[in-house]
């Protein structure tokens, strides 16, 4: 499996030097990629009493494309990954342009993870329709791939249209790989039909439920005439209050299920500041190899 790190967006702060030190440490430790989370605007603290409470206004979220541009300048090798970008709340052509620019400036290191999101407030604030997001994302992916591979595009869809237009510069990767974050059956099947890979539920442990979802993805890929062996699967290992032995055992369990990538997420594990997070990354890297 390829090893990655989730950028702890709410725990590193806004010091550019600390952010630079963190991402350079990720690269120096031999990780393959770094993922970033997306939220543009958040509800006030106290708005939710479930898992969504960690996504309120009192938690910081950097803008993914701007942050990845900074990462591109600070590194030379690691993959740059949105895990995930809430694509249907954005203008399709603008998102395609931004992604292409990151890919150019990083020398072809972008992997675009996309998903639907859950915040109706955020969609409304960005002027997009929350209720059509599932239908829209498939059209967006089709259009973006054309914009990344064709000099001039004419497109007439249900949500976007272009009359003879194209991006310049085009990305290094043509097209940029698109992975889906998906948890429910309809979204899982969409990911298997349209995506280059899948981000599994970051809160789910390896086990029967995940084995069933992976089997569903592979079955759907075959039905769509695709090679399931070429389809990437990324899982998450959360640091929690655990240590290297537990992390290594979970990595082995994910590998046995067929995961191709694993991301270590140390957020909300009681760590504060870049140095404590970097030390956790070092311990995980030594444990998993």
User: Would you report the number of β strands?
Assistant: 10
What's the Cα radius of gyration? 18 Å
Unreliable residue runs: none
User: What pattern of helices and strands is seen along the backbone?
Assistant: EHHEHEHEHHEEEHEHEHEH
Describe the strand arrangement of the main beta sheet, using strand numbers.
1-2-3-4-7-8-9-10
**Coarse morphology:** globular
Overall structural class, as computed from helix and strand content, comes to alpha/beta
Q: Can you count the helices?
A: 10
Helix percentage: 40-55%
The average pLDDT value, as a whole number, equals 96
Major sheet: size, sense and barrel closure? 8 strands, parallel, barrel
What distance separates the N and C termini? 10 Å
Beta-strand content bin? 15-25%
